[in-house]
Write a structure and sequence with these properties.
Elements (H helix, E strand, L loop, with lengths): L14 H4 L11 E2 L11 H13 L9 H15 L8 E4 L2 H12 L5 E4 L6 H8 L3 E4 L3 E3 L2 E3 L2 H10 L2 E7 L11 H13 L3 E5 L26 E5 L13 E4 L3 H13 L7 H13 L1 H25 L4 E2 L7 E5 L7 H11 L2 E2 L1 E2 L10 E5 L4 H16 L1
Parallel strand pairs: 1-13, 3-4, 3-7, 7-8, 8-9
Antiparallel strand pairs: 2-10, 5-6, 9-10, 11-12, 12-15, 14-15
The structure holds pyridoxal-5'-phosphate (PLP).
């Protein structure tokens, strides 16, 4: 486990490092955008995949019981969440699962609630499937975001919301929701019969003293209407494998969701993905602990550097995820000019805050899951450009 070593990812078909043309980015811009990491995954995973690759026979396959045991074990050990094997359904990515839930559990024209600024595919999933996005904007108090519960309930009632997509921990604002906040939201959903899809893909990236709570684990009554989405893809840098887990004890929901995948002919599993996931969940504890520590070092470095060298930029509190949410409003630029300035003058490829919806203007999202030298390079470029 070496999170300090720079790994050359150029010319590996990486969206982040080689996707400049694809995404019309400046070819010279240093990429600190899309949420994957520049770190090597856990050695247990590499070894198991190597063994499978060498075996050389790659026929149709399914998940062994040991995979389900590994998922259950991780959730129990790391998140104090007891689940059963029948509650787990392997899905080809969390975004596909969000879409499948929308299709399976709502009808065209029905309202789906999200809390912007938020991971932008949520809104896309709602709109692609001809449902109506309803926004409960997060409130910004200083450098921390909170929930406007009054607006949350008001919108649910007035817009007749059928489903709420929760992002926990929250991308891009970095909140790790408190138990009380989760309870308040879920109690409102329970009261008004709103189904909750809880995207907890960032659950393993939480910085002390914050603690992640799996929303559905807070109260037995929540099991009837909450679907939890998790994946080892962020935690172990396995995004290319397209594997995630949809977890719900609601059998009727499960049947309907499985049917959506069946309709598309999406059944069967990629053995590489299954093995990588099993190894991650079964043996990845030490890797995960060391990774969180390395990310904390990077985050602390950014905060210290910005405080002394870039007072124009405000860093929002980051309790979880490896995505920092930076406020550039003091530069007084229009969003388009800000994006252009960062990409073409500072030569930094960040995520434009406006893509995350309401409240995203004036912000940029920075991915700190890279070696510290690369991160420092990015901030030197930024400081020098702003100074000039
Ligand atoms: C909140 C959230 N959900 C889902 C995803 C993507 O999941 P997947 O690649 O499994 O579709 C991301 C990736 O950045 C994310 O931040």
């Amino acid at each position: 486990m070496n999170f300090e070593q720079k790994i050359e990812r150029k010319h590996t078909n990486s969206i982040k490092w080689d996707g400049h043309q694809l995404f019309k980015a400046n070819p010279e811009a240093l990429p600190l955008w899309v949420a994957d990491m520049d770190f090597k995954t856990d050695e247990h995973i590499v070894e198991a995949l190597t063994k499978l690759a060498k075996f050389g026979v790659y026929g149709y396959s399914f998940e062994p019981e040991s995979y389900f045991e590994a998922v259950k074990g991780w959730m129990q050990r790391r998140h104090n969440w007891t689940i059963e094997r029948e509650w787990i359904f392997s899905t080809p990515g969390v975004v596909s699962a969000v879409n499948a839930c929308i299709l399976a559990l709502t009808k065209e024209g029905e309202a789906v609630l999200i809390q912007e600024p938020v991971y932008h595919p949520f809104k896309n999933s709602i709109q692609y499937n001809k449902r109506v996005p309803v926004i409960n904007p997060l409130k910004l108090d200083g450098t921390q975001y909170t929930i406007d519960f009054e607006d949350f309930e008001h919108k649910i009632i007035n817009e007749q919301v059928k489903l709420f997509i929760l992002c926990s921990p929250h991308n891009p604002v970095g909140r790790v929701w408190l138990k009380e906040e989760l309870k308040q939201m879920l109690d409102i959903c329970l009261k008004h019969q709103v189904i909750v899809v809880s995207d907890e893909i960032h659950m393993d990236f939480v910085y002390e003293p914050n603690k992640h709570t799996v929303a559905v684990s807070l109260d037995d009554r929540y099991q009837a209407f909450v679907i939890t989405l998790v994946a080892p893809s962020k935690s172990f840098n396995l995004a290319t494998f397209k594997l995630s887990q949809l977890i719900t004890s609601n059998k009727a929901f499960m049947e309907k969701i499985k049917h959506e995948y069946e309709r598309l002919g999406l059944h069967g599993q990629n053995q590489f993905s299954i093995i990588a996931s099993e190894m991650a969940y079964a043996h990845g504890d030490a890797y995960m602990d060391a990774l969180v520590e390395a990310l904390m070092t990077n985050i602390e470095w950014v905060k210290a550097f910005v405080a002394t060298e870039l007072p124009q930029i405000k860093v929002m509190d980051i309790e979880g995820t490896y995505l920092m949410w930076l406020d550039f409003k003091a530069l007084n630029m229009k969003q388009k000019d800000l994006a252009d300035f960062l990409m073409n003058q500072a030569k930094l490829w960040l995520n434009d805050g406006s893509m995350f919806g309401e409240g995203g203007e004036g912000f940029m999202r920075l991915n700190v899951a890279t070696d510290l030298e690369t991160l420092k390079q990015a901030f030197y470029q930024l400081r020098n450009t702003i100074d000039n």
